[in-house]
Every structure is written in C-alpha cells, then in structure tokens.
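Mods, move this if it's the wrong board.
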Amino acid sequence: MKWWGWGEQEISWSHDDKPSLGPFVRERIGIDLDQPPAPLIELDQLKVPDPALDDVLLKALTAVVGDDNVDQTPLDRVVHTYGKSLRDLVRIRRGDLGRLPDVVVYPGTEHEVAGVVAAAIEHDAVLIPFGGGTNISGSLEAPRTETRPVISLDVGRMAQVLDIDEGSNLARVEAGVLGPDLERQLNARGWTIGHFPDSFNHSTLGGWIATRSSGMQSDKYGDIADITRGLRVVTPNGTLVVRPVPSTSTGPSVREMVLGSEGRLGVITEATVHVHRLPAERTIIAYLFPSWSAGLAAMHDIAASDAHVSVTRVSDADETAFSFATTKRSSRLSALKTSAFKAFLKKRKGFDLERMCLSFVGYEGSAEHVKANRKLVGAIVSTHGGVSAGEGPGALYDQKKFDTPYIRDFLLDRGTLADVSETSTGWSQLEPLYDAVIAAARAQFDELGVRGWIMCHLSHSYHSGACLYFTFALPPSAALDPLVQYDRVKAAVQQAFLDNGGTLSHHHAVGTEHARWLADDISPVGVQMIDVLFEGVDPGHHLNPGKITGR
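Not the wrong board. Structure tokens:
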C-alpha cells in the first residue's frame, strides 16, 4: 500500500493515452495536466517520533501475537496512521503525521484479538481496528491530543472463508479478508457475495461492516447491512455473538448496533453473510438519455417496475462529458463520440449533446432472465427518450470501475484537490437536492475565486429513493491554505444535503469528517443514544475514541 496515496505502489493513472482529457481540464478548471507532478516527500524525510509504548505493554502484546506480528517500524506506523481521505493525503504529503500509532499488531485468531483488547484495556491504551486502510471519513486516526499508547490492530491475517452453508446460502468469513480474496475463495466454490464498493480491491469485509458500505451492485444484492446476518465481535466485556437467523424479534437489533459502529464497540472478527450462486450470464448495458431529468425518471421507473437488475447508474451531463474526455482513442466508449453516432442522436433523436447523460444498467442471471429484464428496461428507457449504446461501454465501465481513486492522486500531484460526497433521499427530492448542491458548491468556488468543477451520478436505487454521488475538484488559490478552501466547499456540499432532505452520508460513514453534522441528521436525541451506547460498552474510551459522535 502507498503511504502517500491510493492503492499499490506500482499502479498509477496517466492521461497520456487520453487525448481529449488535457484540453477538457484546461477549458473547465484551467489546469495543465502536462505540468510535471510536484515532488513527493520521501519516507525517510518524515519526522516519525519514537513509539510512546512502555516495555510492559509491548511484552504483553508480543506474548499474545508473537514477535513476528508486532511492528514498530516507521513505514508500518505511517501506513496505519490515516485512511485515504483527501485531507489524509494532503496532511501526510506535508509530513503532518498527527498522532501515529505506537505499535501495529497483527492477530491471527479471535483468541489473539481478545488478548490484544484485554491488554489495551489493562494498560489504559487506545486500540484502533484497521482493515484495508481505505476509509475516507477520518475513522482511522487517533485524536491528536491522545497521550495514552495507541495500538493499531490490523486484522489482515484473518482472511479465510471458514464455511459455506449451501442450504442456507450463508458463508462464515473472517473479517480481515480483502474483497478480491473473498471473491476468489467464494468463486472457487461457485458463489459470490455480490458486494463491490469502489474500494473493493483494498478494503475488507470487517471494514465494510464497520462503515455500512454499499457496493456497485446493491440493486440486486443489497448493501452490506442487508448482506450481513451474523457477527462475532470482541468487546471489552467479552465476545458478542449475533446468530445468523433470517429475522428476529428480540428487542433493539444488536446486529444493527455493530453495523456502522467504526470500531467503537469492539473488533469485528467474523461475519456470516448472504452469498449467491454465480450467475450464468452477466452484462452491463450503456444507455444515453437526453437530459439528467429524463435519466432520473428512468431510474425511478426501473426501481418501481418488475425488472430485477444489479446496477442502475446515470451520470449528469458534466460527469458524462468527463467520462467521454477520459476515454482512450481505441476504447469501446469512444464509439459513442463518433460523428455518425452524434449525428444520429442530434438529428434523429433530438438530443442536445451538451445535456446528454450516460447511464449503465446491469443484468445477472439465466439467459432467459437477462433477456426478459433487458426488454423491460429497454421499454422504460425508450419511454424517457433514451437509447441503448450496447454492451461495449458497459464492459469498459465494468473493467475500470475500481480505477477512479487513482485519478485523485494524479490531480493532487498537480496541485488540484478532488474529493467525493454522497447522500440519499427520496425520489421526489432527488432533483431539488441535486440542484441545491450544485449551486452551493459553485457559490463557494466563486467566493474563493477558483474555477472549480462538480459533477454527479445516481449510484444506488431503492424502492423509495436513491443515492447521489458527487465529485468535486478545485485548483486552490494562493490566498488560503488548500485544506481551508477544501473545507469550505466540502461543508457547503454537506450542509446542502441536510438542508434539502438528504442524509449526511450514504456509505462513507461518519468518522471525524462528518461528526459535526450528525445531530442535524439523526437529531440531538439520536446522538445522545449513540453516546450512551458507546459509554456503556467502553467507559474507558479505549476503542477508537472520538469517532462518529466526536466524543
């Protein structure tokens, strides 16, 4: 993992093979992508303080997990300091390390996790669970003022599918398994979990549960809250066991308490999750709509219809333009940019190409199921003036869907800040919320005197509403610290969510980034209830303190 950016050391993103992108970015936000990237600080230039950990606690941890699974090297401590939010990356590239963990431990069993938790409490240390390190809401950093020893508990050694109950379509899985490893183990036996968040390649099952993650195919498989049935969690008071029954009426749901708890209640060691047989056929079809309104209306009607699809996604006109600008000369998406196809859309279908919106709908199942659902969706698309663009662009989207975070690093290398915010609301409120968010962001760009950019797509559909996923970018001016400028835009976006009927976050969690708005979302009484829960389970504030409620 890169300590200074997203993903693996040897993978990066480039615009060299995307001829339209440079001119597009220069025109829209005034950035020259051909400028050389700013030099990165080297690891040995970082001022990494010595671990603040006494020998007694170190020996206690070593006795639990063994010498080989306790690490105090600068690289490991730096990697486990932050997640991968824009704020995290800006700070770490500046050499601002915040409060580093004093030690990283790698337990291999639930028994060892329990030993680490017990040692942390006995020695009055702070313990922060760590999965893949991809969180972008500040869920992984220790408070800067923390004076107690800080332990990062990395569950990466706990990465096995333990059992599959084929009669119940359930799999018992250790929480530290990364997305690709989980799918490989399940696929080998003919199953899939169907959960594919943007962070899939580098995030873990436990992390998905701790942050209430959503995957790109949630229309079919549900969010992680729907997928997760049973849990094992090591808490300060022992191991919590949630049995994987299909439904129960036994008071407030303990399962729901753990979902989204961000390590405040304990360390998730194992989950029992719904799994599905691998589909016989899988395809993603691209559609084009004459406007954002038409695309939203089509997604609404698909959700309300008898169609059963795995993906419903539609981009606004700005994101569609960006998608076209990032295509390679020979890509399957570039076929949509040909003069002949543009002429067809403009003259035969009456499209305004500047307002055109690109959509993807996924289908899975038997050949008959896929054929029937493509027919149903095709009729809905046609009703709203849309046209099919075939399987080629959909296959490209499916192939490249996990690459987007690398673009943020590429822009940051050239001094441009880029980030995402997502929300959900009812179908009737989607368009007014969208308009308000776009207006709020652009107003901040104007106040800051920068040429910013904001775009959006609908990413997950439900019976009563959908998720809107916004991406914004700005080249900061020299007048203010870049993070101050970023904060102003981010705050405007988040406040617009709440002011227009949206939730604070749909699937990126609360952490520290969103905690200040939590009472506006779930009410002060809701925050009080969560605080009481955290205080009751962990009165010593040993488990990831400060996350979600700020206390």
